[in-house]
Write a structure and sequence with these properties.
The protein is built from 13 helices and 4 strands. By secondary structure, it is of the alpha/beta class. The protein has a 4-stranded parallel beta sheet with strand order 2-1-3-4, with helices on one face. α1 links the parallel β1 (about 10) and β2. The protein starts with 7 loop residues before the first strand and ends with a helix.
Length: about 290
Amino acid sequence: MSVVSSGKILFCEGSPTSLDYKLLNRLVDSIPGNRCTIVPVGTKFTFSKFAEGYFSANRAVNPKYIVFLDRDFDVNPTDNCQLLQRENKSGNKSIFLSYRTCVENYLLDANLIHTYWTEKYAEKLDNPTSKWGHKNSPGVDRISKLIETSARNLQAYQAVRWALGGLVNAIAAREQLKTTWTNKSKLPESLILQDCKNEALKLVDRFRNAVESVTPDKFEENLVVYQQRFVPEEFWTQQQYLIWFNGKDIQKEIQQQNSPFISLNSFFDWAITQLDITQHPDLIELKTKIEQL
């Protein structure tokens, strides 16, 4: 068994073939010195248990690590583009969220899509055996309009997803009913039945209060807030939907409504190597935090 006493660890969602991993690999490759190790953990919901097992298996002592996750619908993006954080009961300050909803949001760029499309078309002209089955790119303006139209089609759905996210992310709603009230696998100070029962009832009360805070009225209240947020014209002219809406959803809508459109999955694999990271302050901030580990 290896012993880890130093070194930098960067946890992310997905697998070694995911866009998250590929994006972080680019960031890490651009940093001189000892290379940070990227560890994909699957879903964000299993991170805590995964990290605990990872450090335990490697006998880590005061590990230096950062966790980078998709923001999804966890917290509202701020006015300034920056890494975000969500409150957590453990007080962990090493968990950071992307400014945009997910990695796909950074890649849904009309200019990038146009460049990829024209290059693939040119390759087809030079190579008759190419499997590229599309005509030439319709142009940046038409691609941009298609992305916006797809986002507009999703406007109601995204408002509902955000409204639900507001319920899920309420601090109380994150409470889970557990089978112990101790930390770090310690035994309770008292093993007397009545004392144990009293502590258990406290857990039940907290869980019940958390569930009671999730109501149809609160959902409706949240929904109105997000419906109003997505209405202003500047939300669309400034392409704020590329920040607020889920990029995977936009991708699906584009492909469903425009069957002749190119495969965005194939495009994303190419685009992740072409993305200009310097245009995204949150990614630059993440790089800096990795360097400072």
